[in-house]
Amino acid sequence: MLFKHPELLWALFLLLIPIFIHLVQLRRFKKTPFTNVKLLQEIISESRRSKSIKKWLLLMTRMLLITALVFAFSQPFFAENTALKKKERVFYIDNSFSMQAKLSNGTLLENAVQEILKHVPEDQEFSLFTNDGVFRKVFIKDIKNNLLSLSHSANQLSLEEVYLKANTLFKDRLETVNDLVIISDFQANMVSKRKDYPGNTQTHLIQITPDNNINVAIDTAYISNTSSENITLTGHLSSNGQIKSTPVSLFNEKQLIAKTAAIFGADNKASVTFSLPQNESINGLIEISDPVLQYDNELYFNINKKEKIKVLSIGDDNSNYLERIFSKDEFDYINSSIRTLNYSVLGAQNLIIVNELQDIPGALQSALITYKNNGGSLVFVPAFKTDFKEYNNFLSQVMGSSFTSLVSEHRIISNINFSHPLYRNVFDKEINNFQYPSVEQYYKLKSILPKILSYANQEPFLCGIDGNYLFTSPLSDEYSNITKSPLIVPTFYQIGVNSLKLPSIYEVLGQNTTIDIPIVLIKDNVLSVTNNQLQYIPRQQAFANKTTLFFDKDLSKAGIYSITNDKTPIQNISFNPSRKESQLNYIDLKNLTATTKNNAIASFFDQLEKENSIAELWKWFVILALAFILIEVLIQKYLK
């Protein structure tokens, strides 16, 4: 039992007053002599005995009365250990796209907001954050309108990210009870390495799940085939439950141009194809109708007029393998000898290949260094009929690398770095057994560049990244058979494609995306990204032959955006949310550690109210005091 005013307990010393009165106010009987006192002695003895009982009863009643009154004014109560401690409460509301799923009274997100508005006391200060917003030290009336207008976000936080973000909102005081309340559907992809919250924070998990979790989604779309007249667009759909078919519509701008039905197989997957005209810009939308989640019912894409990537090969090699790889429909390929080289075109190239030059003139070295500093991509293929040390001055400046020795031994190229960005989405699976190409001579290399292709002894044949690519052996047939290997095509093709990072038919929101726009900006000009609802200036870097745009989590709304230069449209780019939330697979809260776990927000607040409730006892002590007064009156009146 605890007291609101324990200092009043000093008043219990008042109990000494009735005790003192009882001791000092003893009535003495006057003795009178009688000749026969037998009867009187019996009366006196009985009278003394009854008087003593009454006196002790009155003393006890008065002492209990004083005790009850003192306790009543001290206001005693019972409470849990945490009820009296200072509390700091942080709420996390998951507003990711999976919270679009339906309950009988609206979406999961709408239900969560209404329950918060209903149960959080108006006088309680708290902090609240979502996937894309933070409210620090607020009252519910301050953010009511913000919560009612809360929209869904493409950014989904993992549990570890939720914990880390919540940690920035707590003051981390030892005497304060920190309550973290996580309201989410707890999708399986939220699981992180950390499954409980460290420190003195009490974690409360509230899982709300939809009535129906069978969802149909448009997973992806891509150009699967091209011809001189048409483009074949393929779309993949999936469902996490049994479904036969669903209609799929294709729009260009707002005009319906095709409609088909997606037939689902036993694996709950389906594919659709559309034929589109070649050499025509398309601002497309693939659409289905599904009631569970809305965000994955649409997939935006656009097909721009394709910019050709400019590739220049400098060298006397007469082989035409590069010309076959850099085809005319995608690349503007030029092969030039050192004698006929036009230095004025170097800055306009997206990729320059220094192809087995015996010597690199000083003028060319200076031009290539300037080209690299301006963001150009460079491939260096060495020759053997030279003193390799002449290469090192140039290589150390442009690639931070140098050759150390010449090895005249047969080597097979057997190791492929499948995780290298150059080979991203190139191979369906890792290949361990194929016809290995080989070289007869190669240079040993000292370099910080990551390996892409390696010999059996782990020494590099090709290394590089981000526009710097260095071979350690010539590629001509005299020294190698690599040009006859299937590896040569994806390797050089990917180097060429990555030299000008043109947009895909769509990008994914929330991911770091880099694209190159083949335009040279006038001083102080910037490129903007706009649609009907917003204008956004992405982070960008201007080079001599292009402008690079960087997109991250700042852009959060799906759609087709126009890239403009001083209000003049250049090309379009499409963004769609990640489809990782479409499967509606949920975590079992039994596998997570938390202070409390609930399946309804209302039940959590009921539980919280019980834990923080205080049972006040002062009324009972007032009743006891009145009862003791009544008992004293009855004793005085009826006890003889």
UniProtKB/TrEMBL annotation:
Tagged with keyword Membrane: yes
Domain of life per record: Bacteria
Q: Aerotolerance regulator N-terminal domain: which residues? A: 1-76
**Transmembrane portions of the chain:** 6-24, 56-78, 617-635
> Which Pfam families does the record match to this protein?
BatA
Which keywords are on file for this protein?
Membrane, Transmembrane, Transmembrane helix
NCBIfam families, sorted: two_anch
- In its UniProt entry, what is this protein called? N-terminal double-transmembrane domain-containing protein
Q: What taxonomic ancestry is recorded?
A: Bacteria, Pseudomonadati, Bacteroidota, Flavobacteriia, Flavobacteriales
